[in-house]
Specification:
By secondary structure, the chain is an alpha+beta fold. It is 20% helix and 24% strand. The protein starts with 18 loop residues before the first strand and ends with a helix. The relative contact order is 0.28.
Length: 138
């Protein structure tokens, strides 16, 4: 087994196979972006971090959402612009995000960027700044 993706190296909220729903605000907060905005922000954050932006979940159906997973209770500290939807645990609603396994059949979800135990989340400040920049056309 590849040491980078061995069970000892990945967060315990990632399933061993298939995919599962995880409650936001428990293991992570999420920011959802649809379509081209999500693709562009994912590209920008990957470039900025030298392809270590972990973790970003991509949906391959419907609106083709991109889910950027942030540390629990961190996303609400930012005023997310239109197009970036905060999915935290704020008492107004419950939200769930599908989390795919690292390998095997996980359709319709996959990893645009994989998490590791060392770096289990996307940096919320970096994500916010790049999202605002993309929307302003910077």
């Amino acid at each position: 087994m590849d040491r980078k993706t061995s069970p000892a190296q990945v967060p315990d909220w990632i399933p061993a196979y298939g995919h599962t729903l995880r409650h936001t605000g428990v293991h992570f907060d999420a920011v959802r972006m649809m379509g081209l905005l999500g693709e562009q922000v994912a590209y920008e954050i990957m470039q900025f971090t030298d392809f270590r932006a972990v973790p970003i979940v991509r949906s391959r159906v419907g609106e083709r959402n991109m889910y950027f997973l942030l540390p629990p209770k961190s996303a609400a500290a930012y005023a997310w612009p239109a197009g970036a939807h905060l999915m935290g645990r704020d008492g107004r609603c419950d939200a769930f995000v599908g989390v795919p396994a690292l390998d095997g059949h996980t359709w319709p979800l996959d990893w645009r960027s994989r998490p590791t135990r060392k770096d289990p989340y996307v940096d919320p400040g970096l994500l916010h700044g790049l999202t605002v920049g993309v929307l302003k056309g910077v």
